[in-house]
Amino acid sequence: MNPAPATCIRIERLGKTFRGQSTPTLQAIDLAVAEGEFVALVGASGCGKSTLLRLIAGLEAPSEGQVCLDDRPVQGPGCDRAVVFQDYSLYPWLNVLENVRFCRSLRAHTRDASESEVNSAVERAYALLELMGLDEVRTRYPNQLSGGMRQRVAIARALMAQPRVLLMDEPFGALDAQTREVMHELILRLFEIERSTIVFVTHDVEEAVYLADRVVVLAPQPGRIDSIHPVALPPPGARHPDLKLAADFLHQKKIVLDRIRATSGVQRDLDKLSRLAELSRRDRRPDTKPTAGNH
Amino acid sequence: MAADPLWSIRGTLGGARYLAIAGVGFASLLGGWWLLAGSGLVDPVFLPTPTAVARRLLGWYADGSLFADIKISIGRVLGGFGLAVLMAVPLGIYIGSFRPVQAFFEPLMEFARYLPAVAFVPLVLLWVGIGEGAKITLIWIGTFFQMVLMVSDNIRQVPMAQIEAAQTLGANRGEVVSLVVFKSALPGIVDTLRVTLGWAWTYLVVAELVAANSGIGYAILRAQRFLQTDKIFVGILLIGLLGLLMDQSFRLLHRRAFPWLHLR
Ligand SMILES: Nc1ncnc2c1ncn2[C@@H]1O[C@H](COP(=O)(O)OP(=O)(O)OP(=O)(O)O)[C@@H](O)[C@H]1O
Ligand SMILES: [Mg+2]
């Protein structure tokens, strides 16, 4: 048996209350993400998934507690935690290759770079483009690409910085089902090759169970960890889309779904809906009289 | 049946057709003018015929002062406008990027832009005298404050995701501003400059009408004294034409410098 992998991200008693709000958005979050682990965050809309991810990225400051990366508290955004946003984050004035190589124009990446590092960075950019299937389009601008390609560029750009952690906020949220499936295979292959630590926010439970080592369910108001579900699936390299139809997979998916339903107040919403239906039925009754002819 | 692409909303129109339609627009203006002036219904002192205007233009050219007047007017516009650009763009970038700078300058600029530039004429004459400085200063007053506010707005339009993506790739503050915010806002800034250049022409004429002895505006003023309506027309049309030319060069620059915006 391998020794337990080192902890990469440690989240301790983390709380976040936005200014001007009385209730916290996140409360008492405790979570440890191991080196090379793939963690998915799921939960009802508005429960604070993006906020948690942004706290890890250092794009928001915690109100309580802290996020530690390799035991050092996160103070702000940095190149060790790259983020892939849902959309609009590519640079439209740079072509695909220039977008991917963007971090190479920053001091943080060139300060102490030796010539061989510079050369290997050039090779890495081309290798990433090839891996992502972006070879053909490397001189195109982002507005000439499909949504799926754009997200691939965003992922390649983030990986180019060789981050310790890759943070993704619904990266495939705007894509259609087929493209999404292709992206899943790509992510799994990448994960196998790069072995980076990934925290992945999604509202798609199937996606979460299929990709992640562990699925974390957040409960809303205040956002907190409801439950953590280790996924028992073959290793990333051996996963296949057909797996999504296997009984075992569906079972794991159902457990997570049930937790989200239990925490999201869907039942309450359903009650409201049936009351609304009742009301509109009552309203419609007078309308059922035939309208008077006006000719 | 497919909708006619010519009349579909935001449909497409080839360059040649566009030019043809634009030409028809100008031609109808000219034709209308010709008909009205030639009909004898209007006294030529009020509305000279296009031929009279063209003759006057040739005369202006023949006495050798036409190009000198154009040159000096363009020089003044570029001077005042260029000075405003040099100051407004950096300031706008700072205002749009940093809240404390915004808090310091923005209310001041909002206030200053409502000060009527034309009413500054006597003060400007007092402060900088009647030389070239006066015209440049007036054009500067007329454009600078608006330009600062518009540039800072261009800067604030940059999507936060672009900024945050750079930060998480390791960009420091200076790099975010120079490599992302400025680059992202640049097409908008160029548009701002194009719009404000039009105002610079307006204030040029104001300056030349009240405090000059050369330039197109001054020529218009002198023509008024001798009731040379046709020369006034020449002056106005010239300014319109020069403005249009500069505007078009800005558009060309836009297309050349930002190819990605014109791909679809
Ligand atoms: N900058 C902010 N200022 C104030 N409130 C905020 C801010 N960002 C998020 N919130 C609030 O925090 C709560 C959680 O938002 P968050 O975006 O993290 O949810 P989410 O789980 O990502 O939702 P979704 O699934 O819809 O993306 C929301 O109620 C939102 O209104
Ligand atoms: Mg979100």
Kindly list the characteristics that best describe this protein.
heterodimer; A: 295 residues; alpha/beta; Rossmann fold; 2 domains; 9 helices; B: 264 residues; mainly alpha; 77% helix; flat
Please tell me about this protein's structure.
The complex is a heterodimer of chains A (295) and B (264). Chain A is α/β, with parallel strands linked by helices. Helix content of chain A is 39%, strand content 20%. In chain A, the strands form 2 sheets. In chain A, strands 6-7-8-3-9-10 form a 6-stranded mixed beta sheet, sandwiched between helices. In chain A, strands 2-1-4-5 form a 4-stranded antiparallel beta sheet, covered by helices on one side. In chain A, strand 4 and strand 5 (72-73) form a beta hairpin. Chain B has 264 residues and is mostly helical. Chain B folds into 2 domains: 13-42; 50-262, MetI-like (MetI-like fold). Helices cover 77% and strands 0% of the residues of chain B. Chain B has 10 helices and no strands. In chain B, helix 3 (66-97) packs antiparallel against helix 4 (99-113). The longest helix of chain B is centred in the last third of the chain and has 38 residues, at 173-210. The model of chain B has no long low-confidence stretch (mean pLDDT 89). The A-B interface holds A 57-59, 76-79, 81-83, 85, 87-93, 95, 102-103, 105-109, 141-144, 154, 157-158, 161, 167 and B 159, 161-162, 164-172, 175, 179-180, 183-184, 186, 258-261, 263-264. The structure holds adenosine-5'-triphosphate and magnesium ion. Magnesium ion binds next to helix 1 of chain A.
In short:
The complex is a heterodimer of chains A (295) and B (264). Helices cover 39% and strands 20% of the residues of chain A. By secondary structure, chain A is α/β, with parallel strands linked by helices.
Per-chain topology:
The complex is a heterodimer of chains A (295) and B (264).
Chain A (H helix, E strand, L loop, with lengths): L6 E10 L9 E9 L3 E6 L5 H9 L6 E6 L2 E2 L7 E4 L11 H5 L6 H4 L4 H17 L15 H14 L4 E5 L7 H18 L2 E5 L3 H7 L2 E6 L4 E7 L16 H18 L1 H22 L8
Parallel strand pairs in A: 3-8, 3-9, 6-7, 7-8
Antiparallel strand pairs in A: 1-2, 1-4, 4-5, 9-10
Chain B lengths: L14 H24 L11 H13 L3 H32 L1 H15 L7 H8 L3 H25 L3 H9 L4 H38 L5 H10 L3 H29 L7
The structure holds adenosine-5'-triphosphate (ATP) and magnesium ion.
